[in-house]
Structures are given as structure tokens and as C-alpha cells.
Amino acid sequence: MTTTSQRIDYNGLPAVHLCSPDGAEAIVLEHGGHLVSWKPANGAERIYMSPNAVFKEGTPVRGGVPVIFPQFGLRGPLQGHGFARRMNWQLVDARVGEDYALAHLRLSDTPETREHWPHEFALEIAVNISGARLDIELEVSNTGSSTFDFMAALHTYLAVKEVEECGVEGLSGLACEDMLTGKQFRETKSSFTIDQEVDRVYHDTTKPLMLNEPHRGVVIQSENMPDTVIWNPWEVRCAELADMPKDGFRRMLCVEAAVIRDPVKLEPGGEWWGRQTFVAME
Hints:
EC 5.1.3.15, mainly beta, 9-stranded antiparallel sheet, 21 strands, isomerase, 8-stranded antiparallel sheet
């Protein structure tokens, strides 16, 4: 396999394709700074992309890892999940080292963003692959003269063979907000399984999680992103999504590192970072 980092066309949008010396691969769109593929070394695709996804400037892409900023969902005055996933980012660097491949992209404020969210900022995202490991790091800088608050998430769609056969371990005992019912409670299950629509935010997820499937799994760790969103639209909601096939819910589960409950307050000149790490187990 050729070790490379090269610019490619991905469904009509510019992207960078990474291949590390050990054979791990990833593809990152400039649109949204959006990871759309991750294949661990000698492994299968671990990121779900909807076959009905729309690849068009200004439009969110269904699947992959959308970057959510500066607002989560409708918890604020902006469009759902903010504007970062709808914008074109700049590829700053793409390189291959002895045991890794990395892409680094950047997004800054524009007159359009300041019209809707009157702050100066810079976002940077770094995607690093090595062997069975994927690291995604998001950095936020306040480049203006006024303090701002923000929420953020790495809206990761993980590919699964059959979602009803999956279990997420590591959530037991954590405070949880069910966004479908508005109820708050503590998780009691040692392994959380998916058999209906789920849209939950778990808090203080500082320890690793494990997504188990028959014969494989993914270890998931977040840093400086204390909330974790578990989302699957299930049958009825999935059928309402024009950019998802009707059975698409069976092939994905979102496990998203996030900052939601307690937004970050960033002073002028301040910087913040958060990271989500995945290790594939075959």
C-alpha cells in the first residue's frame, strides 16, 4: 500500500486522503473539516456515511464526523448545530510520519458568521491515524476583543453491522438527559443496548467507553469534552430524513464527544481544545 497524503475529489468536494505507513486510511473533506472515512490498518471501514448524503457547499453532510460549533442542536439562536459543519475549511497541512498520517484544517470567522454570531474566532481540527487508532482534536481560539461562550461536539457516526446487536459499556452510574422525553436520571445498565430511537446526553464521561459488536469493538475516549451524546434515529425518524436510507439506522450509532451542559467561556486571546480517540478492536 502506498504511504501518502494527497488531495482528492470526494463526491465533487475537495478532500485529503491519508494513508499511514502501517496501512491505516482516512479521508477528510475541506467542507466542514469533516472526516468521512477511517479504516484502521488491515481493518474494515469504521465510519458510517449515508449513501443518500448530499455533497454540496453550504449543506451538512449526513454521516462521518460533523464538527458542531458554536451551538449544539437548537440550544441557541443559530441554525441547528451551528455553522462550522456548513462552511469550507482551509487545509493547512497534511503529512505522513514514521508511524502516523495527519491532516490539519482551519476555519476563521467571516462577515457572514459575524452577522449571525458576532465574534472573532479560529477553529482548528487535526485528524491523526496510526495503526488501529484515530485521534480527532478540535481547538477553538478567541481572536477578538470580547468574551464568548460556545458549545461543541464531534458528531461521530460509527459504522456497525447491526445496531441491535451492539452495546455501549462505561455509562453506568452517569447522569443522563434524555432529549426525547426531557427526563434526567442516572444510567443503571452496565451495557446500554439500542432497540428504539435514542437521543441522550451523558455527563462527566471521563472514563473510556466501549462499543461492542459480535467479533469486534471500538474503545472510545474523550478529553476535555465531558459530555457524550448517544444517538440513533430508529425506524420512524430515519424514514423522515431525506438524506438517509430507510434502513440506515441499522448500520450506524452516533457516539459523540461534546461540551453541552456547561458551555465553554473563552476570554479574548483564550484557547480551548477537546479530543476524541478511537481504538478499533478486531
